[in-house]
Write the structure tokens for this entry.
Amino acid sequence: MTRLAAGIWVSAYLTRLRLADIPVFVTARGDATAGAVLVKLNTLDGQAKVYQRSFDLMSGERTWVVLAEGEDAAVEAALARQRSFDPDLWIIEVEDRQGRHLLDEPGLSE
């Protein structure tokens, strides 16, 4: 399967979130072709999670896994560390009190 360019995937993801009335912001714009994407879910109660795409060697599928979670400041520190390793990284911040991120919907694991 051909991998979708990061910029196109991000654009589609932002559109899906906006159609669901879930606030979303691009806090770091990465490489449009091959930049990795991290999604920060801010539940607006001082807590947050960061998701990253991972390749499952057993099934061959790409899945979303939690990279960091906890207090928002600690999650922001983890994002800063990741950004220092990878300047081409996309960081998308989703703000939803209900914890919705839509990453489990069909088509978003591509």
